[in-house]
Each structure stands twice: as structure tokens, then as C-alpha cells.
Design brief:
The protein is α/β, with parallel strands linked by helices. Helix content is 21%, strand content 22%. It has a single domain, classed as Isochorismatase-like (Rossmann fold, 3-Layer(aba) Sandwich), CATH 3.40.50.850. α4 (154-167) links the parallel β6 (146-152) and β7 (171-180).
Length: 210
């Protein structure tokens, strides 16, 4: 049982100021998940958090595409890119982890989306689907076999991380009440949950974790 517990890890996706109320790309009630995450962290021997960490002129920013508006979709080097307000710019307060998130147990803070011309939703791969972030190797080195995922936003970075983790052979559980979504396009949160479930991920409430 102890060995099994040691093979588990918690992945906290993008719980940053800009994705919480008052931020430039706020997810509705995004900060409401923080208490849940803080409560479940002691259940895991390994905890990783990710941060979007974009340069000021990042490809995902509508401001980097003259004449375009947030939520427009463009072709960016052959990759379909949703445009957003400027968010999580490197070194700014908006890019910081939310101050109420307990950062003390974090074993790794992984920054993604640092290249101007390439976005990164997944904690494992950038959006070209080829460039790795290093998380796969990190978890392999720790002999992690089971990953629990939470954070922001359900229908973008959380979904991409869950699907990649499953594809890489990890057992994956989504902690549903520790996530919130953008829901753009409409119903994308429901569709994301369906996609994760169909891929083989377990979806549980935090109360089921103990």
C-alpha cells in the first residue's frame, strides 16, 4: 500500500492570478477551487504545479494579431489558435500562482508557453504535439504511475494534460470539484469531461479521495 501511495502524484494546472477573479482572463469562480486543492494536497507524496509563462507578444494574445479580437480563432503556423486577452506575462503578478494556494508542498513548478510563436495547453507537450515540457521524464524518474489532475481551465489546459497523461500510459483521475472551465465554445466543459471519461480517465469528487 505504501508503494502504491508513493507512485501517486497531484498535478495542479495553472492556478494563477490572471485565471482567477480580477485577472485578465478570469475563469468564473476560478478561485473557488483553491480551498479544495489545499485540502487534498496532504494526500499526495508528489505535487507539481504548472504556470503559463508567456512573453509579452505571445501568439495566443489577440493584441499580437492586428485587427483580431479575443476569442477569434486563427491559424498559427498550421495550429488552430484561440486568441485571448494578454495573460500570464512572464514576471508579472498575473502570472504568479494565486496567493491562497499553498505552495509549500510543491516539488516542481513547471512553466509552459514560453516560446513566442507556440502555445502550450498540456503540462506534457506544447501545442505542436512534439515539443515536450520535461514533465514526462520527471514523473518517470520518480516512478509515478498514477496522476491526479486539478486546476484551470477544465476545457483547455486541464483537458489537454489529462488526455496526454493517459496517452503516455499513466492512470489518470480528474478531481472534478477542484477544476473550473472557460466554457468557450458553449458546452465545451461538458464535452471536455466526456472526452476525458471516454479516454479512460476517472472523474471523482475530492470527497472520494479521503
Amino acid at each position: 500500500m505504501k508503494k502504491q501511495a508513493a507512485q501517486r502524484a497531484l498535478l495542479i494546472v495553472d492556478v494563477q492570478n490572471d485565471f482567477c477573479p480580477g485577472g485578465s482572463l478570469a475563469v468564473h469562480e476560478g478561485d473557488s477551487i483553491i480551498a479544495v486543492i489545499n485540502r487534498i494536497m496532504p494526500l499526495f507524496p508528489r505535487i507539481i504545479a504548472t504556470q503559463d509563462w508567456h512573453p509579452p507578444d505571445h501568439v495566443s494574445f489577440a493584441s499580437a494579431h492586428p485587427g483580431r479580437m479575443p476569442l477569434d480563432v486563427v491559424d498559427a503556423g498550421g495550429i488552430q489558435q484561440v486568441l485571448w486577452p494578454d495573460h500570464c506575462v512572464q514576471g508579472t503578478r498575473g502570472a504568479e500562482l494565486h496567493p491562497r494556494l499553498d505552495a509549500r508542498p510543491l516539488g516542481l513548478i513547471l512553466r509552459k508557453g514560453m516560446r513566442r510563436s507556440l502555445d502550450s495547453y498540456s503540462a506534457f507537450f506544447e501545442n505542436d504535439r512534439r515539443t515536450g515540457t520535461g514533465l514526462r521524464q520527471y514523473l518517470k524518474g520518480l516512478a509515478v504511475r498514477e496522476l491526479f489532475v486539478c486546476g484551470l481551465a477544465t476545457d483547455y489546459c486541464v483537458k489537454a494534460s489529462v488526455l496526454d497523461a493517459h496517452r503516455l500510459g499513466l492512470r489518470v483521475t480528474l478531481v472534478t470539484d477542484a477544476c473550473r472551465g472557460v466554457d468557450f465554445p458553449r458546452d465545451s466543459v461538458r464535452e471536455a469531461l466526456d472526452a476525458m471519461r471516454k479516454a479512460g480517465a476517472a472523474l471523482v469528487d475530492s470527497a472520494a479521495l479521503g
